[in-house]
Structure formats: C-alpha cells, structure tokens
Specification:
With about 70 residues, the chain is mainly beta. It is built from no helices and five strands. Strand 3 and strand 4 form a beta hairpin.
Length: about 70
C-alpha cells in the first residue's frame, strides 16, 4: 500500500490523475483518490470529490462527480 497526500499528480500510460490524497493498493492496483479528484484521458475528464480507480482495468467509481467527454 502506498499513501500520498498534498498536491498529488499521477501519470499512468494515457491517464493523468490529480487529487489531494490517494491510497494505492499495489496488489490489486486499485486506488482511492480523495479531494478535488480529476482524471483526464484522451480529451475527456472526470472530476469529483472521491474516486475508486483500478489502474489495470482503467475503470472506476466516481462519487459525487462530473463527466465531460469530447
């Protein structure tokens, strides 16, 4: 498990994720991002307060969020 806090910015393949805090479970490659969460991929973005995201499947659950796709 890895925990980061502050102004977090993660670039993974074609995904950019920013947030205030993240906990990543290395065995499942799942992350729980909290606070000003924003995920950008191929011109589309998701933003919200909290997100559970799997870096292998590129799928996640956004809690209290907004999606914009171009």
């Amino acid at each position: 498990m890895v925990i980061g806090s502050g102004n977090i910015s993660i670039k993974f393949k074609d995904i950019d994720l920013t947030c205030d805090k993240i906990t990543v479970y290395l065995d499942t490659r799942e992350g729980i991002a909290e606070g000003h969460v924003r995920v950008t991929q191929k011109g589309a973005f998701l933003t919200g307060d909290r997100m559970i995201y799997n870096f292998d499947t590129k799928k996640g659950t956004l809690i209290t969020g907004y999606v914009r796709a171009m």
